[in-house]
């Protein structure tokens, strides 16, 4: 019965996405058409995209998503936002932050009908993995985005973790933070691996938490590797504590939490 429930849940969520993406993209295109002349950073379109992505986590009855310390990600400050990566679902649930940022995502995602087209409308930043020349272009695009006042969001592991533990971090996000003198904002996620494993089907039940950690100023760091390793330690500690809190092993902080 558990296997049947998983199969039905998988087919159900993909069917809903398949049926709703075309009309939701039409609305996104109309918003872009109306707002792009005066909303140069596309904040309105991104907010709509947050609602579009969040719609699926709201209606799917088996997923409960909560966000802790959302207010640490301020719309009036540009950050290099870094998050751990456990599942394809990470992208969907991080829109629940309802904060302005530009994704850095692999080029293949932009080729997806409707979803990828909306990412292009939002001027999210694509990267062709394994292409050094394209990496230079991506870094320049990220720099322009930060200088315009928008945050960027990167998965510094570069790919999903198979076991939920942090992989090694790549240096790109930290080079950007030092180069453009913007703080790092770490985010830890837990529960998405249970909801949608890398080589598995949608789970019929998952409790997902997104926790925004304290911003990390970069002015005291002169070395990219030192900054990268420090942020990884902070995120590893944050992830361990988050899991301990969820198991009831330590009392939760008095932090603002919202669904």
What does this structure look like?
With 259 residues, the protein is an alpha/beta fold. It has a single domain (2-258), classed as Glycerol-3-phosphate (1)-acyltransferase (3-Layer(aba) Sandwich). 46% of the residues lie in helices and 15% in strands. It is built from nine helices and eight strands. The protein has helices spanning 2-35, 43-59, 89-94, 107-110, 115-121, 132-147, 172-180, 192-195, 224-246; strands spanning 63-68, 80-83, 101-106, 125-127, 151-154, 184-190, 206-212, 257-258. An eight-stranded mixed β-sheet has the order 4-3-5-2-6-7-1-8, with helices on both faces. α1 runs antiparallel to α2. The longest helix has 34 residues, at 2-35. It is globular, with a radius of gyration of 18 Å. The protein starts with a helix and ends with a strand. The mean pLDDT is 89.
Ordered list of secondary-structure elements with their pairings:
Elements: H1 2-35, H2 43-59, E1 63-68, E2 80-83, H3 89-94, E3 101-106, H4 107-110, H5 115-121, E4 125-127, H6 132-147, E5 151-154, H7 172-180, E6 184-190, H8 192-195, E7 206-212, H9 224-246, E8 257-258
Helix pairs in contact: 1-2, 1-5, 6-7, 7-9
The H/E string reads HHEEHEHHEHEHEHEHE
Shape: globular
The number of domains is: 1
How far apart, in Å, are the first and last alpha carbons?
29 Å
Beta percentage is 15-25%
- Main pleated-sheet profile: 8 strands, mixed
**What's the CATH topology name?**
Glycerol-3-phosphate (1)-acyltransferase
């Amino acid at each position: 019965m558990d296997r049947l429930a998983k199969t039905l849940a998988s087919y159900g969520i993909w069917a809903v996405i398949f049926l709703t993406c075309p009309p939701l993209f039409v609305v996104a295109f109309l918003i872009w058409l109306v707002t792009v002349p005066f909303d140069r950073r596309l904040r309105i379109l991104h907010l709509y995209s947050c609602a579009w992505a969040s719609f699926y986590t709201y209606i799917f009855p088996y997923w409960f998503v909560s966000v802790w310390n959302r207010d640490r990600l301020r719309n009036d400050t540009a950050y290099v936002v870094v998050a751990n990566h456990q599942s394809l679902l990470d992208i969907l649930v991080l829109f629940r932050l309802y904060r302005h940022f530009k994704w850095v995502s692999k080029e293949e995602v932009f080729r997806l009908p409707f979803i990828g087209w909306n990412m292009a409308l939002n001027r999210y930043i694509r990267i062709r993995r394994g292409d050094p020349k394209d990496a230079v272009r991506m870094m320049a695009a990220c720099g322009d985005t930060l200088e315009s006042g928008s945050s960027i969001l990167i998965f510094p592991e570069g790919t999903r973790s198979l076991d939920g533990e942090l992989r090694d971090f790549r240096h790109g996000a930290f080079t950007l933070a030092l180069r453009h003198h913007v703080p790092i904002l770490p985010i830890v996620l837990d529960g998405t691996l249970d909801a949608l494993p890398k080589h598995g089907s949608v789970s019929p039940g998952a409790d997902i938490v997104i926790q925004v950690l304290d911003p990390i100023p970069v002015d005291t760091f002169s070395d990219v590797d030192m900054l990268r390793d420090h942020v990884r330690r902070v995120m590893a500690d944050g992830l361990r504590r988050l899991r301990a809190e969820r198991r009831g092993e330590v009392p939760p902080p008095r932090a603002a939490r919202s669904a």
